[in-house]
Protein backbone atom coordinates (compact mmCIF):
# COMPACT_ATOMS: atom_id res chain seq x y z
CA UNK A 1 0.00 0.00 0.00
CA UNK A 2 2.89 2.37 0.78
CA UNK A 3 4.38 1.89 -2.69
CA UNK A 4 1.00 2.57 -4.32
CA UNK A 5 0.45 5.62 -2.13
CA UNK A 6 3.83 6.95 -3.21
CA UNK A 7 2.96 6.56 -6.88
CA UNK A 8 -0.47 8.14 -6.43
CA UNK A 9 1.08 11.19 -4.77
CA UNK A 10 2.60 11.98 -8.17
CA UNK A 11 -0.86 12.42 -9.71
CA UNK A 12 -3.10 15.47 -9.32
CA UNK A 13 -5.55 13.79 -6.94
CA UNK A 14 -6.89 15.46 -3.82
CA UNK A 15 -8.04 13.72 -0.67
CA UNK A 16 -7.03 10.72 1.41
CA UNK A 17 -6.28 7.30 -0.08
CA UNK A 18 -8.56 4.76 1.62
CA UNK A 19 -8.29 1.62 -0.53
CA UNK A 20 -6.46 0.03 -3.47
CA UNK A 21 -7.72 -3.22 -4.97
CA UNK A 22 -6.43 -5.25 -7.93
CA UNK A 23 -9.04 -5.64 -10.66
CA UNK A 24 -9.49 -6.93 -14.19
CA UNK A 25 -8.66 -10.08 -16.14
CA UNK A 26 -6.12 -8.55 -18.51
CA UNK A 27 -2.73 -10.16 -19.13
CA UNK A 28 -0.69 -7.05 -19.99
CA UNK A 29 -0.82 -4.45 -17.21
CA UNK A 30 -1.34 -4.58 -13.45
CA UNK A 31 -4.53 -2.65 -12.71
CA UNK A 32 -5.88 -1.32 -9.43
CA UNK A 33 -9.09 0.46 -8.45
CA UNK A 34 -8.22 3.09 -5.85
CA UNK A 35 -10.56 5.18 -3.75
CA UNK A 36 -9.95 8.61 -2.21
CA UNK A 37 -12.06 10.49 0.30
CA UNK A 38 -12.38 14.26 0.14
CA UNK A 39 -14.45 15.15 3.18
CA UNK A 40 -17.71 13.25 2.78
CA UNK A 41 -17.17 12.63 -0.92
CA UNK A 42 -15.65 9.51 -2.47
CA UNK A 43 -13.74 9.44 -5.76
CA UNK A 44 -12.53 6.40 -7.65
CA UNK A 45 -9.55 6.05 -9.99
CA UNK A 46 -7.93 3.36 -12.09
CA UNK A 47 -4.17 3.08 -11.58
CA UNK A 48 -2.15 0.99 -14.03
CA UNK A 49 1.42 -0.23 -13.97
CA UNK A 50 2.44 -0.17 -17.66
CA UNK A 51 4.07 -3.33 -19.03
CA UNK A 52 7.19 -2.12 -20.84
CA UNK A 53 7.95 -5.59 -22.21
CA UNK A 54 4.93 -5.17 -24.51
CA UNK A 55 5.02 -1.37 -24.85
CA UNK A 56 8.65 -0.25 -24.50
CA UNK A 57 8.03 3.31 -25.75
CA UNK A 58 5.75 4.58 -22.99
CA UNK A 59 5.84 8.29 -23.95
CA UNK A 60 4.66 7.51 -27.51
CA UNK A 61 1.99 5.13 -26.21
CA UNK A 62 0.69 7.76 -23.82
CA UNK A 63 0.70 10.50 -26.45
CA UNK A 64 -1.57 8.28 -28.54
CA UNK A 65 -3.94 7.72 -25.63
CA UNK A 66 -3.91 11.41 -24.72
CA UNK A 67 -4.84 12.41 -28.28
CA UNK A 68 -7.64 9.85 -28.37
CA UNK A 69 -9.15 10.70 -24.98
CA UNK A 70 -8.97 14.46 -25.62
CA UNK A 71 -10.59 14.03 -29.02
CA UNK A 72 -13.38 11.89 -27.57
CA UNK A 73 -13.99 14.48 -24.82
CA UNK A 74 -14.31 17.19 -27.46
CA UNK A 75 -16.72 15.13 -29.57
CA UNK A 76 -18.83 14.26 -26.52
CA UNK A 77 -18.82 17.75 -24.98
CA UNK A 78 -22.56 18.28 -25.53
CA UNK A 79 -23.58 14.82 -24.29
CA UNK A 80 -25.50 14.86 -21.01
CA UNK A 81 -23.46 11.90 -19.74
CA UNK A 82 -20.12 12.92 -21.27
CA UNK A 83 -18.01 12.09 -18.19
CA UNK A 84 -19.05 8.43 -18.39
CA UNK A 85 -18.73 8.00 -22.16
CA UNK A 86 -14.94 8.13 -22.52
CA UNK A 87 -11.85 7.52 -20.43
CA UNK A 88 -10.22 10.56 -18.85
CA UNK A 89 -6.52 10.64 -17.97
CA UNK A 90 -5.47 12.10 -14.62
CA UNK A 91 -2.40 14.32 -15.08
CA UNK A 92 0.59 14.22 -12.79
CA UNK A 93 1.36 17.22 -10.62
CA UNK A 94 3.94 18.35 -13.18
CA UNK A 95 1.49 18.14 -16.09
CA UNK A 96 2.41 14.78 -17.64
CA UNK A 97 -0.07 11.94 -18.29
CA UNK A 98 2.26 9.23 -16.96
CA UNK A 99 4.87 9.02 -14.26
CA UNK A 100 8.09 7.10 -13.80
CA UNK A 101 8.76 5.77 -10.34
CA UNK A 102 11.89 3.77 -9.65
CA UNK A 103 12.20 2.74 -13.29
CA UNK A 104 8.55 1.70 -13.53
CA UNK A 105 5.87 3.56 -15.49
CA UNK A 106 2.35 4.32 -14.25
CA UNK A 107 -0.80 6.03 -15.51
CA UNK A 108 -4.12 6.90 -13.95
CA UNK A 109 -7.70 7.28 -15.24
CA UNK A 110 -10.83 8.54 -13.57
CA UNK A 111 -13.05 5.55 -12.72
CA UNK A 112 -16.40 5.44 -14.50
CA UNK A 113 -19.12 4.81 -11.95
CA UNK A 114 -22.05 2.40 -12.03
CA UNK A 115 -20.64 0.22 -14.79
CA UNK A 116 -19.49 -3.38 -15.08
CA UNK A 117 -17.64 -5.62 -17.52
CA UNK A 118 -18.22 -9.17 -18.72
CA UNK A 119 -15.71 -11.76 -19.93
CA UNK A 120 -18.38 -13.75 -21.83
CA UNK A 121 -21.52 -12.54 -23.57
CA UNK A 122 -24.73 -12.95 -21.57
CA UNK A 123 -27.35 -12.32 -24.26
CA UNK A 124 -28.02 -11.32 -27.85
CA UNK A 125 -28.94 -7.82 -26.65
CA UNK A 126 -25.61 -7.50 -24.86
CA UNK A 127 -23.76 -8.44 -28.06
CA UNK A 128 -25.74 -5.75 -29.89
CA UNK A 129 -24.84 -3.18 -27.22
CA UNK A 130 -21.15 -4.10 -27.34
CA UNK A 131 -20.99 -3.76 -31.11
CA UNK A 132 -22.88 -0.48 -30.95
CA UNK A 133 -20.39 0.83 -28.37
CA UNK A 134 -17.39 -0.09 -30.52
CA UNK A 135 -19.13 1.44 -33.53
CA UNK A 136 -19.74 4.67 -31.63
CA UNK A 137 -16.09 4.69 -30.58
CA UNK A 138 -14.92 4.45 -34.19
CA UNK A 139 -17.49 6.97 -35.41
CA UNK A 140 -16.32 9.56 -32.89
CA UNK A 141 -12.71 8.98 -33.91
CA UNK A 142 -13.47 9.19 -37.64
CA UNK A 143 -12.80 12.96 -37.44
CA UNK A 144 -9.31 12.40 -36.03
CA UNK A 145 -6.72 11.92 -38.83
CA UNK A 146 -5.16 8.42 -38.67
CA UNK A 147 -1.71 9.88 -39.24
CA UNK A 148 -2.01 11.72 -35.92
CA UNK A 149 -1.41 8.41 -34.12
CA UNK A 150 1.64 6.15 -34.09
CA UNK A 151 1.41 2.38 -34.63
CA UNK A 152 2.11 1.06 -31.16
CA UNK A 153 2.52 -2.44 -32.63
CA UNK A 154 3.54 -2.07 -36.31
CA UNK A 155 1.88 -4.54 -38.70
CA UNK A 156 -0.41 -5.80 -35.96
CA UNK A 157 -3.14 -7.02 -38.35
CA UNK A 158 -1.09 -7.39 -41.53
CA UNK A 159 -2.04 -11.03 -42.07
CA UNK A 160 0.40 -11.77 -44.93
CA UNK A 161 3.26 -10.79 -42.61
CA UNK A 162 1.84 -13.02 -39.90
CA UNK A 163 1.74 -15.84 -42.46
CA UNK A 164 5.39 -15.28 -43.38
CA UNK A 165 6.21 -15.51 -39.68
CA UNK A 166 4.43 -18.88 -39.62
CA UNK A 167 6.48 -20.08 -42.61
CA UNK A 168 9.66 -19.12 -40.78
CA UNK A 169 8.49 -20.96 -37.65
CA UNK A 170 7.76 -24.06 -39.75
CA UNK A 171 11.15 -23.91 -41.43
CA UNK A 172 13.11 -23.52 -38.19
CA UNK A 173 11.00 -25.88 -36.03
CA UNK A 174 12.84 -24.42 -33.03
CA UNK A 175 10.97 -26.52 -30.44
CA UNK A 176 10.92 -29.78 -32.44
CA UNK A 177 7.13 -29.83 -32.60
CA UNK A 178 6.54 -30.08 -36.35
CA UNK A 179 5.22 -33.64 -36.32
CA UNK A 180 2.62 -32.78 -33.66
CA UNK A 181 0.86 -30.21 -35.82
CA UNK A 182 1.18 -31.28 -39.44
CA UNK A 183 -2.59 -31.26 -40.03
CA UNK A 184 -2.84 -27.72 -38.63
CA UNK A 185 0.02 -26.62 -40.89
CA UNK A 186 -1.73 -28.13 -43.92
CA UNK A 187 -4.93 -26.31 -42.96
CA UNK A 188 -3.06 -23.02 -42.66
CA UNK A 189 -1.26 -23.44 -45.99
CA UNK A 190 -4.53 -24.24 -47.74
CA UNK A 191 -6.09 -21.05 -46.38
CA UNK A 192 -3.22 -18.70 -47.23
CA UNK A 193 -5.31 -16.72 -49.81
CA UNK A 194 -7.71 -15.74 -47.02
CA UNK A 195 -4.93 -13.68 -45.46
CA UNK A 196 -5.03 -11.22 -48.37
CA UNK A 197 -8.78 -10.52 -48.35
CA UNK A 198 -8.68 -7.23 -46.44
CA UNK A 199 -5.15 -6.12 -47.35
CA UNK A 200 -6.06 -6.22 -51.06
CA UNK A 201 -9.53 -4.64 -50.65
CA UNK A 202 -8.25 -1.04 -50.89
CA UNK A 203 -10.18 0.06 -47.80
CA UNK A 204 -9.64 3.47 -46.17
CA UNK A 205 -7.32 3.77 -43.22
CA UNK A 206 -9.08 4.78 -40.00
CA UNK A 207 -8.37 4.85 -36.30
CA UNK A 208 -9.32 1.49 -34.82
CA UNK A 209 -9.27 -0.12 -31.39
CA UNK A 210 -7.67 -3.46 -32.38
CA UNK A 211 -8.71 -5.37 -29.25
CA UNK A 212 -12.49 -5.52 -29.43
CA UNK A 213 -13.16 -8.15 -26.81
CA UNK A 214 -16.39 -7.92 -24.82
CA UNK A 215 -14.51 -7.11 -21.60
CA UNK A 216 -13.23 -3.89 -23.13
CA UNK A 217 -16.75 -2.45 -23.01
CA UNK A 218 -18.16 -0.84 -19.87
CA UNK A 219 -21.88 -1.53 -19.55
CA UNK A 220 -24.20 0.70 -17.55
CA UNK A 221 -25.38 -1.24 -14.49
CA UNK A 222 -28.97 -0.01 -14.75
CA UNK A 223 -29.72 0.03 -18.48
CA UNK A 224 -27.24 -2.52 -19.83
CA UNK A 225 -26.13 -0.03 -22.48
CA UNK A 226 -22.51 -0.22 -23.62
CA UNK A 227 -21.34 3.28 -22.73
CA UNK A 228 -17.54 3.36 -22.77
CA UNK A 229 -14.63 1.62 -24.48
CA UNK A 230 -11.53 0.90 -22.40
CA UNK A 231 -8.00 -0.49 -22.97
CA UNK A 232 -6.71 2.03 -25.51
CA UNK A 233 -3.14 0.72 -25.84
CA UNK A 234 -3.66 -0.64 -29.35
CA UNK A 235 -5.73 2.26 -30.71
CA UNK A 236 -3.90 3.12 -33.91
CA UNK A 237 -4.40 3.35 -37.69
CA UNK A 238 -6.13 0.30 -39.16
CA UNK A 239 -9.19 -1.03 -40.97
CA UNK A 240 -12.67 -1.05 -39.44
CA UNK A 241 -13.00 -4.66 -40.60
CA UNK A 242 -10.26 -5.68 -38.15
CA UNK A 243 -12.30 -4.45 -35.21
CA UNK A 244 -15.53 -6.04 -36.40
CA UNK A 245 -13.77 -9.31 -37.20
CA UNK A 246 -12.24 -9.57 -33.75
CA UNK A 247 -15.64 -8.86 -32.18
CA UNK A 248 -17.07 -11.81 -34.11
CA UNK A 249 -14.14 -14.04 -33.20
CA UNK A 250 -14.30 -13.31 -29.47
CA UNK A 251 -18.03 -12.74 -28.88
CA UNK A 252 -19.97 -14.96 -31.29
CA UNK A 253 -18.42 -18.17 -29.94
CA UNK A 254 -19.16 -19.35 -26.41
CA UNK A 255 -16.24 -21.78 -26.18
CA UNK A 256 -13.02 -20.91 -24.39
CA UNK A 257 -10.11 -19.87 -26.58
CA UNK A 258 -8.24 -23.07 -25.64
CA UNK A 259 -11.25 -25.42 -25.61
CA UNK A 260 -10.16 -29.03 -26.24
CA UNK A 261 -13.64 -30.34 -27.08
CA UNK A 262 -13.96 -28.92 -30.58
CA UNK A 263 -17.62 -29.96 -30.79
CA UNK A 264 -18.29 -26.95 -28.53
CA UNK A 265 -16.61 -24.55 -30.94
CA UNK A 266 -18.98 -22.89 -33.42
CA UNK A 267 -20.13 -19.45 -34.45
CA UNK A 268 -23.53 -18.48 -33.10
CA UNK A 269 -25.28 -16.86 -36.07
CA UNK A 270 -27.77 -15.03 -33.85
CA UNK A 271 -24.90 -13.36 -32.01
CA UNK A 272 -23.21 -12.56 -35.32
CA UNK A 273 -26.36 -10.82 -36.55
CA UNK A 274 -26.59 -8.80 -33.31
CA UNK A 275 -22.97 -7.70 -33.69
CA UNK A 276 -23.49 -6.72 -37.31
CA UNK A 277 -26.70 -4.78 -36.61
CA UNK A 278 -25.18 -2.94 -33.65
CA UNK A 279 -22.01 -2.01 -35.49
CA UNK A 280 -23.81 -0.78 -38.60
CA UNK A 281 -26.40 1.14 -36.58
CA UNK A 282 -23.80 3.18 -34.72
CA UNK A 283 -21.40 3.68 -37.62
CA UNK A 284 -24.22 4.93 -39.88
CA UNK A 285 -23.05 6.68 -43.02
CA UNK A 286 -19.46 6.85 -41.77
CA UNK A 287 -18.58 3.60 -43.57
CA UNK A 288 -18.08 3.30 -47.30
CA UNK A 289 -19.98 0.65 -49.21
CA UNK A 290 -16.78 -1.38 -49.61
CA UNK A 291 -16.15 -1.27 -45.86
CA UNK A 292 -19.66 -2.51 -45.13
CA UNK A 293 -19.30 -5.38 -47.58
CA UNK A 294 -15.90 -6.32 -46.12
CA UNK A 295 -17.56 -7.17 -42.81
CA UNK A 296 -18.77 -10.46 -44.30
CA UNK A 297 -15.23 -11.90 -44.41
CA UNK A 298 -13.79 -9.98 -41.46
CA UNK A 299 -14.54 -12.66 -38.86
CA UNK A 300 -12.95 -15.37 -40.98
CA UNK A 301 -9.84 -13.30 -41.64
CA UNK A 302 -9.17 -12.34 -38.01
CA UNK A 303 -9.92 -15.86 -36.75
CA UNK A 304 -7.48 -17.29 -39.29
CA UNK A 305 -4.86 -14.72 -38.36
CA UNK A 306 -5.15 -15.51 -34.66
CA UNK A 307 -4.96 -19.22 -35.40
CA UNK A 308 -1.70 -18.93 -37.32
CA UNK A 309 -0.25 -16.71 -34.60
CA UNK A 310 -0.97 -19.40 -32.01
CA UNK A 311 0.46 -22.07 -34.33
CA UNK A 312 3.65 -20.10 -34.99
CA UNK A 313 4.16 -19.53 -31.29
CA UNK A 314 3.65 -23.22 -30.58
CA UNK A 315 6.33 -24.09 -33.16
CA UNK A 316 8.70 -21.52 -31.64
CA UNK A 317 8.27 -23.01 -28.17
CA UNK A 318 5.64 -20.71 -26.63
CA UNK A 319 7.77 -17.57 -26.61
CA UNK A 320 4.99 -14.95 -26.89
CA UNK A 321 1.69 -16.16 -25.43
CA UNK A 322 1.61 -17.28 -21.82
CA UNK A 323 0.83 -20.98 -21.41
CA UNK A 324 -0.27 -22.85 -18.30
CA UNK A 325 -0.09 -26.40 -19.65
CA UNK A 326 1.62 -28.37 -22.39
CA UNK A 327 0.28 -27.83 -25.93
CA UNK A 328 -2.01 -24.99 -24.84
CA UNK A 329 -1.03 -22.89 -27.87
CA UNK A 330 -1.75 -25.83 -30.16
CA UNK A 331 -5.17 -26.20 -28.54
CA UNK A 332 -5.74 -22.47 -29.10
CA UNK A 333 -4.79 -22.85 -32.74
CA UNK A 334 -7.17 -25.80 -33.19
CA UNK A 335 -9.99 -23.83 -31.59
CA UNK A 336 -9.48 -20.91 -33.98
CA UNK A 337 -9.32 -23.18 -37.02
CA UNK A 338 -12.49 -25.01 -35.96
CA UNK A 339 -14.24 -21.67 -35.46
CA UNK A 340 -13.10 -20.63 -38.94
CA UNK A 341 -14.63 -23.82 -40.38
CA UNK A 342 -17.92 -22.99 -38.64
CA UNK A 343 -17.84 -19.51 -40.18
CA UNK A 344 -17.14 -20.99 -43.61
CA UNK A 345 -20.05 -23.37 -43.23
CA UNK A 346 -22.32 -20.37 -42.57
CA UNK A 347 -20.73 -18.07 -45.15
CA UNK A 348 -23.74 -18.11 -47.47
CA UNK A 349 -26.04 -16.95 -44.65
CA UNK A 350 -23.45 -14.36 -43.56
CA UNK A 351 -23.13 -12.95 -47.09
CA UNK A 352 -26.89 -12.82 -47.47
CA UNK A 353 -27.35 -10.96 -44.17
CA UNK A 354 -24.63 -8.42 -45.00
CA UNK A 355 -26.17 -7.73 -48.41
CA UNK A 356 -29.59 -7.35 -46.80
CA UNK A 357 -28.44 -4.86 -44.15
CA UNK A 358 -26.11 -2.93 -46.45
> What level of helicity do the residues show?
40-55%
Cα separation of the termini: 53 Å
Overall body shape: globular
Oligomer: single chain
Listing every helix as H and every strand as E from the N terminus to the C terminus, the arrangement reads HEEEHEEEHHHEEEEHHHHH
Strand content: 5-15%
The overall strand count is 10
What integer is the average pLDDT?
Answer: 94
Radius of gyration: 21 Å
Structural class: alpha+beta
Question: Runs with pLDDT <50, length 5+?
Answer: none
SS field, number of helical segments: 10
Q: Which strands sit side by side, in order, in the main sheet?
A: 1-2-3-5-4
Note the main sheet. 5 strands, antiparallel
Written description of the protein model:
The chain is of the alpha+beta class and 358 residues long. Helices cover 42% and strands 14% of the residues. The chain is built from ten helices and ten strands. It has a five-stranded antiparallel sheet, with helices on one face. The protein has a three-stranded antiparallel sheet with strand order 6-8-9. It has a two-stranded antiparallel sheet with strand order 7-10. A hairpin with a 2-residue loop joins strand 2 and strand 3. The protein is globular, with a radius of gyration of 21 Å.
Note the topology.
Elements: H1 2-8, E1 16-22, E2 30-38, E3 41-49, H2 58-75, E4 99-101, E5 104-110, E6 115-116, H3 124-141, H4 159-172, H5 182-190, E7 206-208, E8 217-220, E9 226-229, E10 236-238, H6 240-251, H7 269-283, H8 289-316, H9 328-345, H10 347-357
Antiparallel strand pairs: 1-2, 2-3, 3-5, 4-5, 6-8, 7-10, 8-9
Helix pairs in contact: 3-6, 3-7, 4-8, 6-7, 6-8, 7-10, 8-9, 8-10
Amino acid sequence: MDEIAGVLERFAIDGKLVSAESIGSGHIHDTLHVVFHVGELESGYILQHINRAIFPDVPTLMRNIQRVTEHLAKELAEHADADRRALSLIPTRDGQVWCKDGGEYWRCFRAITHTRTFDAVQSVEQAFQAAKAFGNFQRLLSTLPPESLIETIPGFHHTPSRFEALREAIASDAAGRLNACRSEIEFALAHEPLGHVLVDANLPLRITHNDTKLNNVLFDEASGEGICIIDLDTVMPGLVSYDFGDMVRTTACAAAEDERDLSLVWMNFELFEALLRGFLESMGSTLTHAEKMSLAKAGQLITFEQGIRFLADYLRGDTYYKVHRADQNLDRCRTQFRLLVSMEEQSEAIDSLVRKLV
